[in-house]
Amino acid sequence: MKTIVLFSGGLDSTTALYVARSEGREPICLTIHYGQLHEREITSAKKIAVSLRLEHWIIPLSLPWGGSALTDSEIALPKGRSEKEISKEIPVTYVPARNSIFLSLAASLAETKEADSIYFGANALDYSGYPDCRPAFLEAFEELIARGTKAGSEGKKIRIIAPLLYLSKAEIVRLGYELKVPFEWTWSCYEGRETPCGECDSCILRAKGFREAGIEDPLMQTMRRA
Amino acid sequence: MKTIVLFSGGLDSTTALYVARSEGREPICLTIHYGQLHEREITSAKKIAVSLRLEHWIIPLSLPWGGSALTDSEIALPKGRSEKEISKEIPVTYVPARNSIFLSLAASLAETKEADSIYFGANALDYSGYPDCRPAFLEAFEELIARGTKAGSEGKKIRIIAPLLYLSKAEIVRLGYELKVPFEWTWSCYEGRETPCGECDSCILRAKGFREAGIEDPLMQTMRRA
Q1: How many Å apart are CA B23 and CA A140, to the nearest integer?
Q2: What three-state secondary structure class fits B59?
């Protein structure tokens, strides 16, 4: 059965994509180019989708009102925070209503392609700061599309599958490792430079995941070689 | 208080905008250019927003997967249907998950601008064919943003206000007439030609509304003069 994978090219969504494949799904990838400063992740997404010969939609979406450090270069990215500090509150990297927008676009594609599900790499454990990654949000979204789509009206349910929701970053790394995720092609850093900054929240959580999983991050190895 | 108005430039959303103003709101208009074949409505939206000196965001959004007669010229628009036929089933002009996408974008703008509500010209009575115009859908969306936004996490509710939800088209026309909506600038026809086709579902419902309200449609008067 076809499934839509919300696919940013990062560690989590790439692992979610590999989970979908391992579960026998036919993934259609959807990447949103929403003016993220780290648009380098889109290059990663393309490379991975091409390597797997997958149907891949890349949708440009302007959110010109800003409101997030991910889309507005005037808002400073938090740097060098401890893991505890990161999950304490909703960070400035929160993009207003971003995952509602992304999931709605995925639902639109799912309905058109008659897919029965959306794979979404949300994680509530090591990054509980974002309200639109929480289980209660995902349940509300399933209800929304059940009520507000043609598919839903015809009794065809579109499920939101979030296989990483209750995993720690280390468990995600281990799962990805087992599924042979090409970690060296994934991109996590919120800055869009040549090499990961190592100091933004996303770099810190990625490093924590690999460290606790006891696996070396091949992206960092590549960077050191370069 | 600031409010976001989902504003297409059509009869319903323009009336919703005038209701928001009459209720003492400060409207910020949001128009989505989603590849609708009748993009002429965007010209209408601009003209009306400029005349009222309102902040107006026009967001281009490509939905390249089609799936609707409104975005795919290969799918024929229904023509000459009776009013009864129109509301019987979900029509081919349904755009998959469109209002979920639009409301999510409105919620993003609302959060960024600290607006407390979204005015939405949905109508469940004379156009009950669209599942994403039904009251149950709007309730589910309010719940979604309560759970999935920073504003919601902080206890700031963003309300969806649908002032036309239970009105007939005739009642909408009468309400717009009282509020001095510039009907001649609004655009309803699903075809993007010089003059309204008079035969698509949207033209038929608009004509019904004016006829039953006993008011002449100034757009049609203008067209006859031209």
Answers
A1: 30
A2: strand
State the Cα–Cα distance between residues A52 and A35, nearest whole angstrom.
26
Query: For residue B50, what are its two tokens?
Result: 């400029």
Q: Which one-letter amino acid corresponds to residue A180?
A: K
Instruction: Determine the distance from the C-alpha atom of residue A4 to the mean position of all C-alpha atoms in its chain, rounded to a whole number.
Output: 13
Which residues of A have a CB under 8 Å from any CB of B?
A: 57, 59-67, 90, 94-101, 104-105, 107-109, 111-113, 131-132, 134, 136-137, 140-141, 143-145, 147-150, 152-153
CA nearest neighbour of A31 among A51, A52, A53, A14: A14
Q: Which domains does chain A have, with CATH numbers?
A: 2-225 (3.40.50.620)
Q: For the purposes of burial, counting CB atoms within 10 Å of the CB of A216, is it exposed (0-12), middle (13-18) or buried (19 or more)?
A: exposed
ipTM of the complex: 0.93
Instruction: Please list every residue in chain A whose beta carbon sits closer than 8 Å to the beta carbon of residue B107.
Output: 96-97, 100
Residue range B9-50, pLDDT digits in tens: 999 999 999 999 999 999 999 999 988 877 888 999 999 999
A56: nearest CA in chain B?
A: B65
Please say whether the beta carbons of A97 and B108 come within 8 A.
yes
Taking the C-alpha atoms of residue A47 and residue A43, their distance in angstroms, rounded to an integer, is 6
What are the two backbone dihedrals, phi and then psi, of residue B8, each rounded to the nearest 5 degrees? Answer: -95, -15
